[in-house]
Amino acid sequence: MKVEAMMKTEVISIRENVSIEEAKKLMESHRIRHLPIVDEQKNLVGIVSDRDLVLDRIPNQKSPSDIEVQSVMAKEVITCHPYDFVEELLSIFYEERIGCIPVVKNNEVVGMITERDMLYTLIQLTGAHQPSSQFEVKVENLSGKLADVTAVIRNHNVNINSVLVYPGETDATKVLVLRVQTMNPIPIINHLKSEGYNVLWPDTSGEFV
Amino acid sequence: MTKPIFVFSDQLLSYKFSNHHPFNPLRFQMTYELLKDTGVLSDDQIVKPRKATDEEILLVHNEDYLKAIKKAGLGQLPESQRSSFGLDTDDTPIFKDMHEASAWLVGATLTATEQVFEGKTKKALSLGGGLHHGFRGRASGFCIYNDSSIAIEYMKQKYNARVLYIDTDAHHGDGVQWAFYDDPDVCTFSIHETGRYLFPGTGNVSEKGAGKGYGYSFNLPVDAFTEDDSWIPILEEAIDEIVKFFKPDIIISQNGVDAHYWDPLTHLSLTMKSYRKIPELVNRAADRYTEGRWIAVGGGGYDIWRVVPRAWSLIWAEINGIELQGTLPEAWLTKWQEKAPVDLPSCWDDRADLYPSIPRKQEICDKNHVMLQRTLQHIRNEKKSV
At the topology level of CATH, where does B5-12+22-48+109-385 sit? Predict the structure, then answer.
């Protein structure tokens, strides 16, 4: 998935000479926590977060209506491009410990992505937002295993909403997490078990075997 | 004093996908006969339903969906159009005259609604209803039209009512929740097995409503293998506090009985003890807060032989203030034992050693209790600040 498919395109940006007080009001009224700062040519010159606007970070104890945002903004902004992949962005959020990344194309801010947008994308990737049942199959770490499992499901006329492949406890195994669009996954589970698969499924002794 | 009513007719038994589908209308007939044979259902309490009109179905559903269901029932819906309406899977496959069968179920719940609001009765049971997974434009989880959503919208528009919906099916009542997610005049509460594995996967405690409806959706997901001892006290607390908070004009309760230990589709461990208690708690809430107005509908329940007839009969008994104890009628047992692939239990209550004890019992209890706190957190906080 590319960044342009998930970014917010209605960008609220401000000029560098806007006062801190005004910037705060803007954040409150739009319920956002980051504002990109642009110059006359709409080029990105900085970014402020709600935490940059907290009073004790502001020099000289001046009134917030007298200080311009450029005195507190971060000037070296981490940005991304609409054609970047979502996976790359996840690493940037994680490593840089930031909450928001402006999307820049031809020097212009064309979108914004927050941590929350990333989480929503992850929810969609897991398929958990659509009615479905979930089960997990522990398989040997060999090529072709996923195809074998889905070949069984194919016999049951059931759509697969999502597939995740988790690493097992050791390199020898993987766990396939499947969300299937049915209220009655029992026939599939029984079928998989009869073919010798280790299906992880609620069990009285623990959450699963 | 007006008597409670029981909505029933043979048309309600026509909602049937196929002979091997888990959703089987035979359970409704078995319940009806069990009540008859027990001698607690008199003919003057039975009301025949009407069929819902297109306009009524459109109170909730989209027009293209209604048209598609009608076409599908006549065998005229092209294969390419089935998947977008949820009609391409084994959960909700197409069957002959599916529109009519579904419209009868909706009509049954609407009949119950009219009987209550027109003062003919305070309490009504419509076991054909409770199809809580139906979405505006899509069939899901054995459900085509969402009778409860339609009845709630009907009560709102026609009688200007504030409605509390209580859903004790083992699956999350997603269709009803999403239909009224931003509506502050309809409060939905669903207790269900966590969606970690179980369909539909939603019903997280954090789903509390949106916009003006924020705070009016309640979800209480419980752990797999939850037993009566944990389910009953948390349900009691939840119902008490929610009904006090919302002050509804009427309660509509969905009575899926698939949280029983014997149910093949879920992983909860309830017994008949819970199925005595659930209607008792709802009835008490109705008597205290809605002048007794209560509509009970059916829902899931896939052990049709051993669980559903007894559990549903206990709702009718509670509604009428009748105690059902001891053994089931001999005639009923003889008739249905011949057809059943399993041994039918002979008593109203389950035997004490129904299942082996669950090793994680205490942990499950603790987790459910923490979940209850989170479910009720926003109304408990509000109370403190007053």
Answer: Arginase; Chain A (3.40.800)
